[in-house]
Amino acid sequence: MELKSDYYYGNEAEQYIFYRIPKILFTEPHLKKMSNDTRVLYGLMLDRMGLSIKNNWRDEDNKIYI
């Protein structure tokens, strides 16, 4: 049986975009009751915060807008 692997070239690898969700949201005992929907929302907000940082969207206290 021959194993065939496909490769990604150039920007093809960028077709998969991921949201990051911190492991701590799953492992810390005091966060165990958090719903998975809440964890996903947190990941979405982190992603949005990255865009805000990139665009330098900050308030007068240097806090990032989401």
Short description:
The protein has 66 residues and is mostly helical. The chain contains two helices and no strands.
Mean residue pLDDT: 89
Q: For the report, how would you describe the main beta sheet?
A: none
Could you spell the SSE succession in H and E letters?
HH
Strand content: under 5%
Structure report:
It contains two helices and no strands. By secondary structure, the protein is mainly alpha-helical. The longest helix has 19 residues, at 36-54.
Key features of this structure:
66 residues; mainly alpha; 35% helix
Secondary structure blueprint with pairings:
Blueprint: H1 24-27, H2 36-54
